[in-house]
Amino acid sequence: MGYQASYRRSLDDPEGFWGDAASAVDWYKTWDKVLDDSEAPFYHWFRGAELNTCYNAIDRHVVAGRGSQDALIYDSPVTDTKSRITYLELQDKVSHVAGALRDMGVAKGDRVIIYMPMVPETAMAMLACARIGAIHSVVFGGFAARELATRIDDAKPTAVLSASCGIEVNKVIPYKPLLDEALEIATHEPEHCLILQRPQCAAALTSGRDLDWSDAVAAAEPASCVPVAATDPLYILYTSGTTGEPKGVVRDHGGHAVALTWSMEYVYGVEPGDVFWAASDVGWVVGHSYIVYGPLFYGCTTVLYEGKPVGTPDPGAFWRVISEHKVRVMFTAPTAFRAIKREDSHGDYVKRYDLSCLKTLFLAGERCDPDTLDWAGKMLGVPVIDHWWQTETGWPIAADCMGLEQLPIKPGSPTCAVPGYDVRVLDNDGIEVPDGEIGSIMIRLPLPPGTLTTLWNNDARFVDSYLATHEGWYLTGDAGYRDEDAYLWVMSRIDDIINTAGHRLSTGGMEEVLSAHPDVAETAVIGVADELKGELPVGLVVLKSDVDRPEEEIKAELVAMIREKIGPVASFKKVSIVQRLPKTRSGKVLRGIMRNIADSKEYKMPATIDDPRILGEIEQALKTIGYAKD
Ligand code: COA
Ligand code: AMP
After folding, report:
1. Which atom of ligand 1 is nearest the CA belonging to 311?
2. What mean pLDDT is predicted for residues 205-221?
């Protein structure tokens, strides 16, 4: 079936479409109804069915004869390690980790926080939770202790799984002190912490609470797969909202298994046995869906890469991994390619490797600029597919579906809506705008399987954040347009979210941190364009009138505060002190205009601006930190 026919069927007959797709998943019990809409706007896919996510990712492949195939390749230039784990070995290892969790008192429905680096044990931890029906919540290692504490208090985990350290290029980052600090800050106390000791750094264990990973796993009896309801939560993944309070996106078991399995075949166009590599981090949704679950559901070999596109050791790192492990389909963020291009614009490193195994490159996580798309295509000689999705959806909303048919590429557009997503561009009144006109990109309910079912413990915030703008529609938070060929053009966010190096950050959350500084009266954080990272946060701060300390000292403190409270991943390095912030007469800070000034873009003076002279002051302030160039 081609793209059009598949897309139409998915919208005209969603139950038939997804019911058929579900036959690629193994169930203990099939569903009473493919789509239960009796509690709309909460929709339940495959209600009444039972399955086990870990069984679908591992055990069934062993049963089907894939036991000796590599399930996971670990490639870690930062520790000079490469290893391969077959499906049979993974089954054994995951069963033992699951047994250790059970021994720690973790039962079906309990939460487990995983704060770990890019090592195979992290994927094993996720799969082990799924095996016994526990709900995992992976927290990205680049977040600070306070962010981890917020997630611990929200998820209330029975156990936390962590490691002694992460490794960032050549820096060893001890994780255990961050975990200990987070547990000090948090009010919730997990019963146990299971700590993986890495040779690069030993962590001190708190007796009674902390257990050594190797000892606990060696002592555990293997645990078998527990049937869970298709509608039970598989995981919670926290993502930035417009405030400092992260949103706990909840993903179910059944819809997730069906949608990801379908996407491997039809979006990514791979075959079981192929090597699939998502160069991301397991802490992000890309890592959940396409380092761990998707490739394993589909019987592929997944690559878990602990390194960077550059510096580990050179801009040929990605090409080495592709050629060495025979990667067929690769997925990363455009920023990784910008980093490589900056160091090797002529592609000298590309020429050193045989990349004939590679069939397609997929890019996502941020808007892909046509230059980067073009460069990647020229270097690799394969189709480069920009596709659009978000933590909330868990799998692509718009893409060139390589397993259906390849549509012509229009650089700058992630092509058309993927089957299952009825994507429209609406105006403020909820009316669809004509093709070519910018509006709010929304998706008609119900969302397809595999997308978020709610926010953890917060149905009200789920409705309020995503479903309340126009009844019957999901708000993506992205603005853009659809062209005459139904291609989508995703241009910007409509909220305070920015994308830095493919990492989603809340400028509102940063403002909350800066406002807590005793000398600060008012603050605005804006996302300005950056050649490498796409966007970078920049702070504009008004000090209290009686402050007479040196400005440089205060600025350094503000930078340090964001690093300490949110984490290094925020990449917050630039702040400017200003006398006032531009506002409307009703007091709304004009962040969009400041962003345009910083990026030297034209802007319209709003009629409601309180005092236009402030914009000149802002321009001067931004010039002093390298923006608003003429
Ligand atoms: N644990 C601890 N610290 C981390 C971390 C982790 N898992 N990940 C990042 N950090 C730190 C970095 O060390 C850096 O710290 P520094 O300020 O001391 O240098 C900071 O957070 C910012 O990291 P990052 O934004 O990754 O910048 P970078 O300069 O280290 O690397 C790129 C830039 C483009 C090479 C890198 O961002 C990259 O490879 N991006 C790929 C995109 C990606 O994986 N996106 C995920 C979604 S698909
Ligand atoms: P995250 O939840 O971290 O995956 O971030 C999701 C957001 O990243 C989206 O809402 C978009 O704003 C942006 N994004 C992701 N992929 C793309 C893309 N291909 N084109 C444009 N924006 C994208």
Report:
1. 35
2. 97
What does pTM read for this prediction?
A: 0.95
Compute the distance between CA of residue 609 and CA of residue 621 in angstroms, rounded to an integer: 19
Q: Is the pLDDT of residue 91 over 80?
A: yes
Pure H helices in 13-74: 14-21, 53-54, 60-61
Q: What is the CATH number of the domain that holds 617?
A: 3.30.300.30
Average pLDDT over residues 510-536: 95
Span from the CA of 209 to the centroid of ligand 2 (angstroms): 39
In a domain, 547, yes or no: yes
CA 542 – CA 117 distance, rounded (Å): 38
Using the predicted structure, report yes or no on whether residue 290 has a pLDDT greater than 80: yes
Cβ atoms of 566 and 143 closer than 8 Å: yes
Ligand nearest to the CA of 493: 2
Q: Is the CB of 308 under 6 A from ligand 1?
A: yes
CA 228 to chain centre: 25
Cβ(501) – ligand 1 distance below 6 Å: yes
Q: How far apart are the C-alpha atoms of 82 and 190, rounded to whole Å?
A: 33
Structure tokens at 424: 């429209």
Structural domain of residue 539, as residue ranges? 501-624
Does 577 fall in a domain?
yes
Looking at the CA of residue 492, tell me the nearest atom of ligand 2: 12
Structural domains counted in the chain? 1
* Ligand 1 site-directed mutation target among 571, 572, 574, most atoms within 8 Å of CB: 571
pLDDT tens string 419-430: 999 999 999 999
